[in-house]
Structures are given as C-alpha cells and as structure tokens.
Amino acid sequence: MLHNAKALRILIIEDKQEEYDLLTDCLMTAQLGTTQIVHALDLDTAKEILLEDSSFDVIFLDLLLDNCSGADCFVRVMDMTDNKLPIIALCEVEAPETTLLALVNGAKHYLIKGSYNEVNVKKVVEDCLLLIKKGAKFFENRYLTDNNERMAICDIDYINHRVKRTGTLFFEQLGYTSQDFDKDYYFWNNNIHPDDQLYVSQIIAESLIDEAKRYWEIEYRFREKEGNYAWILEKGYILCDADGKPVRIVGLMLNIQERKHSESLIHISKEQYASFFTQNPYPAWIYDVQTLRIVEANAAASRYYGYQREEFLNLTVPQLRKPGEESFFLNTRKEWRPNNPVRHHQVKHLKKNGEVMFVDITAMDILFDGRKATQVLAVDITAQVNAQNERLFLLEIVEKLRRANSLQNGLRAVLKYGREYIGWDFAEIWLSDYDKESIKLVAYDFDCKHPERVTFVEEAKNKLIPMEQTVFKRKSKHYNTYWIEDLQNERLFLRANLAEQIGLRSGFSVPISFKGHYVAWIIFFHHKNMPKDLALLDFMERICKQLGMEIERRTSEEHLNYMFELSQDLLGMASHKGYFMQVNKAFTQLLGYPQDALIDKPIKRLVHPEDWAILQAALSELKAKQTIPSFELRCIAQDRSIRWISWSMTQIPAEDIIFASGRDITAKKQNDVEREMLIKELTENNRDLKQFSYITSHNLRAPLSNLLGIMDLINPKAVQDPTTLFLLEKFKESTLILNQTVNDLLNILVIKNNVNIEQQLLSLDSVFQKTFNNLAYLQKKVESTLDVDFSAANQIVFNSTYLESIFQNLITNAFKYHSPERVLHVKIYTKKTKEFIKLYFCDNGLGIDLERHGDKVFGLYQRFHHHTDSKGLGLYIIHSQIRALGGNIEVQSKVDEGTTFIVSFKRY
Asked: In whole angstroms, what is the distance from residue 252 CA to residue 259 CA?
C-alpha cells in the first residue's frame, strides 16, 4: 500500500453522473488516504479548473465524452497539463483501440467502465503512483509489454521520421530480433509484399487526407526473415496537431496467418480454374509433385516466359530456374502436405531467350485431377528488385567515398565498384578546380586483363587542364550527360585515336554537380559499340547527384585539413581535462615538440609554472561559455626557451572538445618591453625639459623685470651723448622683445600642460564680434570687406579664451599678409560633419607656398613673409590650442591667390 504524506487530490473528467458517482464511491472507500475530488463534465470545464489549479495528483479521464472522444480527447488533456500530470483512462470494453491509443500516448493506467470496485480502483491508483515514483517513461507501462505473441504496436513520429515498436514475441514469430525492427524507420515498409505495397500506400494516403476518418484497417502480406510471407491485419490511427496536420501514427498489427489459411486442402478441377487460373494476368502453373513436370499453365505463363503452351507443358520446374540454382530447388522443396499453408519465396527464373527475371512465388499444395500437385503463381518483381539493388548500390557507393581516408582513394573505390557493377571496361573521374574553369584526372579504373589501357590516361593524370582540352573539344558538352556510341567517329572526343588503339569503342560521361556548380565528371568506356541506354544514364545521373554533395564535402574537409596542417598558428583540439587530441605541424616548428609526443599529453606540461593558474582559469571559464576572450601565457619549448603565446579557445557544443588557436607573440612582448622602456625614458626627458623651461623662464623673468624697471627710471633727456642714447634705445627695444618672447613661451607651456581646460557652450558669432571689435582699428589701415555666415553651425563647446585667441590670430594674419594689389576680402563660414563642426576662414592675401613650407606652417617661429613684425608664433599657438581640446586645423593656400584655414571643433 502506498502511504501519502499529503491528501490525494483527484480530478475526474466524466460527463455521466452515475459513472462519476460510482467512481467517487470507490475512491472514498478504497483507503487511499484523505482525498479531495473535483468533477468536470467536459473538457472546457476541465481546462478552466487546470488553469486555476494544476496541483492534482491524478486525473481520471473518460475517453468517450459527448463532445470529444478517443486519442484526440486524451491528447488535449495532456496538453492542458503540459504532460506533467498522470492520467488514468476510463474506457469502454467495446473499444480496445481507444484504450491502446491512450496507453501509447502516455496514459499511466486504465479502468474499464462497468467494472469499478474499490479493489481495482485502489490497485490502479497505487500502480499509477508507483510508476510516477519510478519515473516511468514512454512505452514502460506494463500493459504494452510483449504479453501477446500475435500483436505488435508501433508509434511513428510522422514529422521527424522516428518510430518505436513493441511486440518482441510477435516479431520473433516472424524470425526477427529487436535489432531488426526497433531501430530501422523503414523496416516495416521495406518488408510489405511488393504486390501489396501500392495498395497499402494508397489506403494510408487516403486516410492522411481524409480529415474526418484518420483511421484504416487493412490486410496484407508481410515478409518473414526467411523469405516467406505472413498475413497481417493492421489497424492504424492518425493523431493531428491543432491545425489538423498529421503528426503521429499509431498502428496495431495482428498475425492472421492461421485465419487466412485455415482451409487445409483445396480441391480443384480444370473447370473451376477456367475463371481464376486460366484468365489470371500473372503467370500460373501446376506441377506434379512426383515428377516435377508442369501439367497445366495459363496463357500469361507462355507470354512472360516466351514458351508456346506445348513447350511449357514439357518443362520441369527446375528448368525454369537460373543455371546453378536447380539443385537449390530440389534440396529445399518440402514434402507435399495438404494442410501446409501458402508458401512465399523469391527466386530467379530464366526465360526462353535467356533473360533472367526475379519472381515472387506463391505456392500451395493441391489435388489436381486426383494427383498430388502444387499450384504456383509467379509475379515478376524484377523492376522492384533492381530498384532495391540500385538503392543498396547507391548507399554502398556513397559509403565507400565516406569511409576512404582521402578523396582520391574514395573516388578510386567509387570507380571500381561502379565500373564492375555496370560491367564496363574503363572508368575515369575528373575533378574541377576552385574556379570551375579547369579540371584534372584524379582517378581511373580498368579491367586488369588489359594493363595496356593505362596509356589512355598517362598524359592527362594529375595535370590541371582547361576544360575544353580534356574530354571534349566543346566546353558545353561537359555540362550535360553525353553518350558516344562510336568513339572513333565522334569529332568532339579528343582521345578518339588513342581509344581506337587500346580497343575502346563507346563511352558516356555524366557531370557531378553541387548547388548549381559542376564539381566533377565520371566517364565510362566499353570495348563494344554500345547503343544508348537511357535506363543506365538515368541510374548514373541519380548516383552522381548523391556523389556531388559528398565530393564537395570531402573536398572542403581536405582543404580544411590542409589549412590546419600548414597554418603558421598553433592549432589543436583538446579535451576539457586539458589533454591534446590533435595538433598541427606549427607546434613542432615553433616549440620543437614532435606531433606524436603531444597527443594524449596534458597541455599543462607546455606552460610555464607561473602561468598555470591562467590556463586553469581559462579552462574553467570555458565550461560555462562557448568562447572566451583570448589570453596570453608563457610556453616552454623543447629546448627550454620561453615563448609567449596568445591563445583563443572555443568549445564545440555538446562535445568534450576544445578548439585552441595560438599565435607566437614573443617578438611583440619583447618590443612591448623595449617600448615601455623608451616611453619611460622619453617621459623622464620630457619632464626634465619642461622643468628646464619653467626654471629658465622663471629665472629670466626677474632680471627682465629689473631691466625694464631700470629702463623706465632712465630719463633719455638727461643723456647728452647721442651714441649712449642710441644704445639705450636699442637695449630697451631688445629687452621688450625678449620679455615678449618669454611670455609667449610661458603661454605655450601652459597650453601644453593644462589637461583640465574649462570648456563651455559658446556662440561663434558672439565671440567673433567681440574679438573683431577689439581689432576694428585694422580696417582703418587696410581697405577690406568682410563676409561672415555662421548659420550652418553657430554653437560649439570650447574654451572661450582659446576661441578668442584663434579669431584674433587669424584676423590679424589676414590683415597683416594682405595683398597690396587688391582689396582684402575675408570670408568666414561654418559646416557640420558627422564628427566635427568646421570653421572656414578664407582670405585673398599673399598666400603661402605649401610646396616649400607645407610641413612648417604650424611650426614654432616659422616665417613665410618678410614682415618686420612677424614672429612666427601665432599659428603655432592656434594649432596647440585646438589640438589640446581634441580638434584640428588645416591650411589650403596658393601664392598670391589667398589662404583658407579650416578649424575642426569636436562635436559633443
């Protein structure tokens, strides 16, 4: 007995009140513990209850509700519970199929209506809760175990092409093991009798289309493992999604062989066969069991086998068999048994013209004119067998290409297998290059009885040849399947003369394509003049469609392997435990270790002990992520030298594989160290120079101030000597210039070292007007016109003092270096770009020779005109101020035409 720690909560979905009352009484008296029972009369009510409260322990579901029934009803409730609550199906005894569907779809148990009592209700609930406790999964209910040797169940995932079959004893009775029927999705369809396959397919197809039916019941013959056929009754059910599309198929198969063959003996006469035997469209005959001579045959037998009726009646059964198989018939035929069921087997028969055909034989022992005889019905299945053989051949030929250790070896195996299968003498495969303009002969195969035929390919193999110079003279011929009945008379075939010399007469080529690109060509040759065989061409075209994808895959794979091996970076695969699984040659080239010495060895052995923690942290981080940032660590080479490696690692999803890529950065690390030392040295020198400049400027200012003070105290009128007066004036002039120079240098130092320059939102128009008003006197000295337009961009974030300085220097320069030949015209305007606000300052003055002075324009103390008041300092100061705040300045100028300065202010 199950003891529940909490009250058992039960939902009963039942539209019959009397059934609900009976079940409730059984539950309450079944000693299951205190229970809470909720009743729903239909699915809509059940849905509302489950949306509000999904904490029920068990659901009882009537599978025959008025508004919904069967598997659809069950699936809808499963969806309401998100497949999380156990369901016990309430079924009618007259509808076992409904019960089966519920169990197949996941019901934990069932109860048959009319059999409710407290004992079986209690047992069902306890068994259901035990299954929940054990975590039972799909098909683990004991009601689906193999307790019925005549029944099997299959559940088909129609969308993903997966199947689950149960019924071991059923399949063992047919000769199959679980390995045969459990894994193969196509196992069932492949073993239906060829004559029944079309009929079965049509019935199922009609059921899939008929939304109202979704059900079928059909009898057909199914192949036993030894080759005989047994009669099967199949009941099929289709489950659909919310849109009405089929998603699952559930089938119940019953062995009805005994019922189909319950009549032990068939008494027959020639008159009775007039309608069934003689007029049958399939070949049929009767042979005497003692002599094996054919005693009766219908017209279809003569027509199919090519014998006249009299000839056919003079044959024995072994004479119909393919040479070499007569003894097999004699050894395997059974003793005549009137109660023996119908026998089925497939054999090879020989027509009168020597053609071999595959036939499906149905034989039964009868009495014919009072004699022991066997009646045979033969169905020609040559087309089906050939189709099956072709499918197997196609699978095998693709598998040979996949299993080969290289593409070239795989193509050789494909050629050999294909050539021998179709029985031709010589075969080639030509492979296209990357540009699809040239091809090369990469594989060939021929009958070993003619070794001289190797000369046919000696000049072409492994050479990259333009497409029109390989097989056919016309390039377009390569793009279609092409058959040549007579190589010697085919003008487009380039090797016609050589083919004649080695005895090749016919040939055909088939292009192999992938996604619209021709990747290869397969060509076969024969020593006879072979007429065009459309069936063979169709067969080879289907093979080549499959080969195209595989060839392209193998080509890409080998290219990747080639890149892997020849990469200058260290490439390898490792496990999460830190062991190499594969490495490329770069490990040997860089670190000196042989590749074999690193396989299955820990990565840690390569890493400098001080960097082990870095590696361990990277591996730990990779467990939670697919990729991690690159990291650097030191590796120890075989010669004990140290190499700095930058590693990138990626985890292959769902596998214990890490792909690692390493790049040697030893030289970079050394350069970084040298650069850091150089930067440190330059920083110290720069600091010393700045300190020197400050000291020099400071020490000069005091004497200069004293000199200027002394000069102010000297009264020139008191000096009578003209020479002394002249010298004093020059001395004062030089002192003033020196003082101005020192002040300029100090201003430059302040700009260069002030990292916290105050910036604010400024109006270009306002600052310009303020600056120009202070320089209005310049217009009195020089005739000029002024055109100012800040409409495109009037506001910038900048330092106000620096902006005034920029305007002042540019304005004074324009007036200072105006051309005496024309009126000075100054144009100032702005533009906006993605990153900057640009200020254009244009004049038509003397201009600057940029070819001579372009690299000096913004240098310190650079002069480009012979003006006495020019110091060569203004543009340097402007340049320093703009660069200090993230902007830039450019110059465009031509001599005697004018100059344009473009100031770029950074946008914020």
From this structure: 17
CB distance 622 to 628 below 8 Å: yes
- Which backbone phi and psi does 318 adopt, to 5 degrees? -60, -25
**pLDDT score at 269:** 45
The label of the residue with tokens 């020779």 reads 849
> For residue 78, what are the CA distances in angstroms to 13, 50, 108?
13, 11, 12
Residues in contact with 366: Cβ distance below 8 Å, sequence separation at least 6, in sequence order: 265, 266, 267, 268, 286, 373, 374, 375
What does the alpha-carbon distance between residue 826 and residue 476 come to, in Å, rounded to a whole number?
A: 71
Question: String of b and e for 592-613 (b: at least 16 CB within 10 Å)?
Answer: ebebeebeeeebeebbeeebee
CB 809 within 8 A of CB 825: no
Higher pLDDT, 751 or 875: 875
Give CA–CA dist 767/94, Å, rounded.
Answer: 101
Q: Which of 96-100, 230-234, 875-879 bottoms out in mean pLDDT, i.e. has the lowest?
A: 96-100
Task: Give kind and range of the element (H or E) at residue 692.
Answer: helix 666-713
pLDDT of residue 268: 47
Nearest 5°: the CA angle 900, 905, 908 is 160
41 Cβ partners below 8 Å, 6+ apart? Answer: 14, 15
Give the SS3 label for residue 39.
Answer: strand
**First and final C-alpha spacing in the chain:** 78
pLDDT of 342 over the 80 cut: no
- Rounded Cα distance between 125 and 37, Å, is 14
How far is residue 412's CA from residue 428's CA, in Å, rounded to a whole number? 9
How would DSSP label each residue in 778-835? HHHHS-EEEEEE-SS--EEEE-HHHHHHHHHHHHHHHHHT--TTS-EEEEEEEEE-SS
E strand map for 464-591: 465-466, 482-484, 506-514, 517-526, 570-574, 580-583
SS3 for 269?
coil
Is residue 60 a contact partner of residue 34, using CB atoms and an 8 Å limit?
Answer: no
> Residue 740's CB: how many other CB atoms inside 10 A?
13
What is the spatial distance between Cα 831 and Cα 791, in angstroms, rounded to a whole number?
9
The neighbour count for residue 701, using CB atoms within 10 Å, is 14
Token pair of 541 as six digits: 């075209």
Q: Give the pLDDT of residue 905.
A: 93
Tokens of 341: 């069921």
443: left (phi over 0), alpha (psi -120 to 50) or beta: beta
Give CA–CA dist 536/418, Å, rounded.
12
> Can you tell me the distance from the alpha carbon of 768 to that of 763, in angstroms, rounded to the nearest whole number?
9
> What average pLDDT does range 832-857 have in this prediction?
86
Instruction: Tell me the DSSP string of 741-784.
Output: HHHHHHHHHHHHH--S---EEEEHHHHHHHHHHHTTHHHHHS-E
Q: What is the pLDDT of residues 501-515, one digit of tens each?
A: 888 999 999 998 877
Which DSSP symbol is given to 149? T
Show the DSSP H helices in 612-665 as ranges. 612-624
User: Which tokens sit at 234?
Assistant: 């199949």
Is the pLDDT score of 695 beyond 90?
no
In Å, how far are 493, 751, 834, 908 from 887, measured between CA atoms?
72, 14, 14, 12
Q: Which of 116-130, 812-826, 860-874 has the highest mean pLDDT?
A: 812-826
CA distance 237 to 215: 5
- Helix orientation angle between 70-80 and 96-104, rounded to the nearest 10 degrees: 30
Name the average pLDDT for the chain: 80
The mean pLDDT value for 207-230 works out to 80
Question: How much is the average pLDDT of 168-185?
Answer: 80
Pull the structure tokens for residue 756: 């916290």
Q: What is the mean pLDDT of residues 561-587?
A: 80
Q: What percent of the chain has pLDDT over 90?
A: 13
